[in-house]
Write a structure and sequence with these properties.
By secondary structure, the protein is mostly helical. It has one domain. It is 60% helix and 0% strand. The chain contains seven helices and no strands. Helix 1 packs across helix 4, helix 2 (27-34) runs antiparallel to helix 7 (115-129) and helix 6 (92-107) packs antiparallel against helix 7 (115-129). The protein is globular and about 35 Å long.
Length: 135
Amino acid sequence: MLRDRRSTLLAALPGRMHVVSDGAELAPVAAALAELSECELCALIDTTDNVPQIVPGLLTWIGHACDWELNRRACVDLPLQSPDVAIPPEENALSIAAIMTLRMKFNRDTSGDAGAVVALFDAMISVLTGGERRH
């Protein structure tokens, strides 16, 4: 299995709901992940492992999603978990602010290579904010 450490970690988090989404709300995230190269996925995983853990739940969910995509490509069937599994309620607002900041930084990439990562962050922001439901 490719880098499924975060998938195992999410399943073992104490006190968190272990509910896997029905898939509909996470479909845009899955589609955006499919557009990333293996190099981009690994870079995101490395980044989530090596930055200050100010929003650890968000970083865990981003890493899990990237691990999930790498495993999917290797024909390993694991569930893509909802951010609610990794992000505690008290971290929600900070996680949304953090991923919006990440999106802005990647969107400013002048080389034009960050479009797929920006699309991933857009999909994740939509899930974190509930799309139209929470606005």
